[in-house]
Amino acid sequence: MRAKYLQKSSSKLLAIFRLTFLFFILAPILFSLRCLVYPISFFSEQTDRKIRRYLLHTWARIFVIVCGIKVHIEGNIPEVPCFIVANHISYIDTLLLHYATKCIFVARGDVEHWPVIGFVAKKLYIIFIDRSNRLDTKRVNEEIKHALKMGDGVAVFAESRISCGKDVQPFRPALLSAPVECNMPVHYASITYEAIDGTPPISYFVAWWRPEPFTYHLIRLLGYRGFKARVIFGEQPIYGTDRKELANQLWQNVRKNFIPIQ
Question: Cα–Cα distance between 107 and 162 in angstroms, integer?
Fold first, then answer.
């Protein structure tokens, strides 16, 4: 009983340390640098985006180290500008894709209104979509085209929702207009996670499929020693002239490389 109590106490202390360092020390420092160079955007948006990619990538790399995430990357890693489609298990997916490629991503619309995180995300050129409004896809596709034109990589989670990690749900074609219209190759990635010794199943503290607040889940995740993360990129990107056919091809290839969560 005492050992269990001590374990819980150490987990809380670890979560508090990581949360404080990452979000209240490191993030403000990098964001201050972001604000310092922001005037560059009035003269060159491309240069501003390059600086933003460097700062965000620095945060992602440090996050991986501090949180004990053992990242394993396979396949051909695409270079920006690029368009990437992947499966979706957790908010950690976005961190991993940026860690590997320096890409930005399309996030669900409510994130834009989260305290602090939403404000920072907007300053980092994250693209938001209102999934409840079908007409919003047109605006988002135009933003994707602009980001690609400015030299960014853009990642889309085509399942349109987070899964529990047992399988990859069929991909929706709504956000594939940009690569189709621009005749651009679409890269794909399969993301999965594995627990390390002494930690609970991944479905408990990494996968975010339960209806629980982001902050609650994040604090629990930060309280464990770490976990393994695997990103498998396809060997060759896929071209397509029809969104639905392209979505199906991408889904089949992502699913082929996907390793279900235990």
Answer: 11
Q: What CATH number is attached to the domain comprising 251? A: 3.40.1130
pTM over 0.70: yes
What six digits make up the tokens of 195?
């627990």
CA distances from 98 to 58, 153, 238 (A): 10, 9, 20
Provide the b/e sequence for 166-184 (b: ≥16 CB within 10 Å). Answer: eebbebbbbbbbbbbeeeb
> Which range marks the domain in which residue 219 is found?
2-257
* Low-confidence residues in the chain, pLDDT < 70: 1-9, 115-117
CA angle 241, 179, 34 (to 5 degrees): 175
For residue 128 the two structure tokens come to: 């938001």
Q: Map residue 195 onto helix, strand or coil.
A: coil
- Asked if residues 125 and 104 have their Cβ atoms less than 8 Å apart, the reply is yes
